[in-house]
Amino acid sequence: MTARPDDARVVVLAPMPLEMRAIVTAFGLEPAGEASKGSWAGRVGRLTVTAVHVGMGPASTRAATSRVLEETGPGHQPVAHVMVAGICGGLSPDLPVGTLLNPDVVVDHGSGLSYRHNPPGDLPRAGKLVTTEGVSLDPELCRRFLDDGCLGVDMESAAVAEVCEGRGCPWSVYRCIGDRPFDGLLDERIVAATRPDGSPDLAEIGRLLEADPGLATKLEQLGRDAALAARLAAEAAARACLLLGA
Predict the structure, then answer these.
(1) With DSSP H G I counted as helix, E B as strand and the rest as coil, what are the percentages for the chain, rounded to 5?
(2) Helices in the chain by DSSP H: which ranges?
(3) How far apart are CA 39 and CA 70, in angstroms?
(4) For the whole prediction, is pTM greater than 0.85?
(5) Domains in the chain, ordered, with CATH?
(6) Of the candidates 226, 224, 237, 92, which has an alpha carbon nearest to the alpha carbon of residue 157?
(7) N or C end of the chain, less CB within 10 A?
(8) Backbone angles phi, psi at 201, to 5 degrees
(9) How far does the chain reach from its first CA to its final CA, in angstroms?
């Protein structure tokens, strides 16, 4: 990646509130103001950084990424680079929770299209990251993904790549394994208790715990793992941002 001029703008997308909190901390951002509700801003070296909460899933991500790249107005800074940072599901038993992925390719499961990943820096890239429409815990599908070289699965990265490449804007992804379907912690009940914006439905979780008190242990472990993965992904994105501004 080439060096960026002073005041170039980097946008970091956060699918979930948990990931946004980690990004805000890693980049040292502040609220962008009432007019930009849900976004945070700051500087990393010579670069202006804006973080935006986009919600979960390809459709929401495409819409949010398009809005970011189409913004205009007095004093508007064109976007020089788009990042998406957060957790992903792990597909390989050889990669534990907390493993940061740097994929060579991002794949859209829905369309079958692939996007070459060219992040800042020279860290080795390996494997694929596959983006799906929703959370799938189907063991057979997960095995097929792994057999195809996919090391992780998320619901946003390919949507970012699609929109950015269509508009000629560089992009990169920072994903850390926060759960693995074969570990038995995540199940359909927990998935269903997550709102589209990535926040937990606390009322539904309360009902689940009332019906199955033993679920609390799984939820606590998932929470710890997700927080760790979100932090590591956000810190990786912040390091890459420093490279962009070098």
Answers:
(1) 40, 25, 35
(2) 17-27, 58-70, 139-147, 157-166, 188-192, 202-211, 215-244
(3) 16
(4) yes
(5) 9-184+223-244 (3.40.50.1580)
(6) 237
(7) C
(8) -85, 95
(9) 10
Mean pLDDT of the chain: 91
Closest residue by Cα to residue 20 from 32, 4, 35: 32
Q: Helix or strand or coil: residue 75?
A: coil
Residues 6+ apart with CB under 8 A from 219: 190, 205, 209
Give per-residue pLDDT as tens, 182-206. 998 988 899 898 998 899 999 999 9
Instruction: Tell me: pLDDT of 66 over 60.
Output: yes
Do 106 and 159 meet the contact criterion of CB atoms below 8 Å apart?
no
pLDDT band at 6 (very low <50, low <70, confident <90, very high): low
* CA–CA gap between residue 218 and residue 185 (Å, rounded): 5
Phi, psi of 243, deg, nearest 5: -65, -40
Q: Which two tokens stand for residue 83?
A: 């990042």
